[in-house]
Amino acid sequence: MKVFVNVRMFVLLICGFLMALYFSWMANAGINYGYSWLYHLMAIDQHIEHFAPQNRFRHGFEAVEAEGHIAAFNSIVESVHHKGKGLADIQYEVAGEKIPLLHEAEVVHLQDVANLIDNIHYLAFFVSLLFFFMVFVGNRFLQENNIKADAKSVAMIFAVFLGLLTLLVFAIGPKEVFYQMHVWVFPDDHQWFFYYQDSLMSTMMKAPDLFAGIAIQILIPALLLFAAGVLLARKFRL
Fold it and tell me: Is the pTM of this model over 0.85?
């Protein structure tokens, strides 16, 4: 029984951390992943100025003002968070000419991203159900039977688990892990890697650098939210 109680607490910590990541991710999505300031922080305008003229499929994107670049990115975010609707309709304007931002392979990839986001929503819902079930049902059972978990030991194991996972990511290399996740997640016959010369999408995102900035923006609030949740759980003895 004691093992079950400790496993329950460990699962609660995992679920709580995943929920914190999800809520932080959704908050970031609500502000378009902070692209408007990351754009300037990462000198994405200079990146676009250098690589957009080399694009083999589109022209003139380097002549678009920064506000147009940011608006294009925000349109992509809007679409991928709404089942991919409108991806093929995103345009930019150069000298009165309206040009589709994305070519077919980019649209297919971003549709895959939209599908992945939908699946993550379902997973987050399941994790939340599991979390609250174990909190309310499990906590009542434990109180009735006067059973307590070894909180410090479980917390230490959880911290070591996260630490080892982090070390593993940096040992392999964040970029390599990022690319491998793409291999696992997206269909084999769908392109997900784009050279800057072949993709305004990749150019305007300064891939993969932008995603590192977004990851930090998601992770730090998630850790703070998770810590606040743990403190509340201790206060109410959940």
Answer: yes
